[in-house]
């Protein structure tokens, strides 16, 4: 699919029909996948660690080794991988023509280190060169109560009100959404 219009591209991000969670782990209680179980669309997992796959399968979430291997178009990717892997995941999302990537991963320019700044420039360059919407890094991403796109099982899903909220702080945003 081709989404040349920015409004259409933003709509894919904010109102996704398909979501992929990349990098969820048992150590976190599969927090992202559990949170997304309320999602009204199709949910996928991307995880290559063989020790993690049985836990993901137990949640009845299809798992793939790469975003580009998922058979459907993907509107929104929530990426929670270590910083050294982030650029590879963003490049895979660009290859797949994903609508948007929310990069939960930290350790980028906010560290004020040369390594972090270079890593952020790398993911930003990949996104820019491929016209990929990038949310983050080091952010919670999108919360859409109506569709069940959420980042904590404590966040409600279902009927939405008429208020939108944008926050620079993920912690504040989550607290306001509870």
List the helices and strands and how they pair.
Elements: H1 6-14, E1 18-22, H2 31-35, E2 42-46, H3 53-58, E3 63-64, E4 76-79, H4 83-96, E5 100-103, H5 114-129, E6 133-135, H6 170-177
Parallel strand pairs: 1-2, 1-4, 2-3, 4-5, 5-6
What does the model show?
- It is a single chain.
- The protein is an alpha/beta fold and 178 residues long.
- Helices cover 33% and strands 13% of the residues.
- A six-stranded parallel beta sheet has the order 3-2-1-4-5-6.
- Helix 2 (31-35) links the parallel strand 1 (18-22) and strand 2 (42-46).
- Major sheet summary line: 6 strands, parallel
Radius of gyration: 15 Å
Number of domains: 1
What's the CATH H-level homologous superfamily?
NAD(P)-binding Rossmann-like Domain
**H/E series:** HEHEHEEHEHEH
Range of strand content: 5-15%
N-to-C CA distance: 35 Å
The main sheet orders its strands as 3-2-1-4-5-6
> What kind of assembly state do the chains in view correspond to?
single chain
Task: Name the average pLDDT.
Answer: 87
CATH topology-level fold name: Rossmann fold
Got a strand count? 6
Summed up, what is this model?
The chain is α/β, with parallel strands linked by helices and 178 residues long.
Keywords:
single chain, 33% helix, alpha/beta, 178 residues, Rossmann fold
């Amino acid at each position: 699919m081709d989404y040349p219009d920015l409004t259409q591209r933003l709509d894919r991000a904010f109102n996704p029909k398909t979501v992929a969670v990349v990098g969820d782990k048992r150590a976190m209680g599969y927090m992202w996948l559990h949170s997304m179980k309320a999602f009204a669309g199709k949910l996928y997992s991307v995880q290559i660690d063989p020790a993690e796959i049985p836990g993901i399968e137990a949640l009845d979430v299809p798992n793939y080794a790469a975003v580009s291997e998922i058979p459907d178009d993907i509107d929104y990717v929530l990426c929670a991988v270590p910083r050294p892997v982030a650029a590879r995941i963003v490049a895979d999302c660009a290859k797949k023509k994903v609508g948007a990537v929310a990069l939960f991963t930290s350790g980028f320019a906010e560290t004020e280190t040369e390594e972090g700044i270079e890593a952020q420039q790398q993911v930003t360059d990949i996104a820019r060169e491929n016209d990929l919407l990038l949310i983050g890094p080091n952010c919670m991403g999108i919360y859409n109560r109506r569709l069940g796109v959420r980042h904590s099982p404590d966040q409600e899903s279902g009927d939405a009100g008429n208020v939108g909220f944008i926050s620079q702080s993920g912690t504040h945003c989550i607290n306001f959404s509870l």
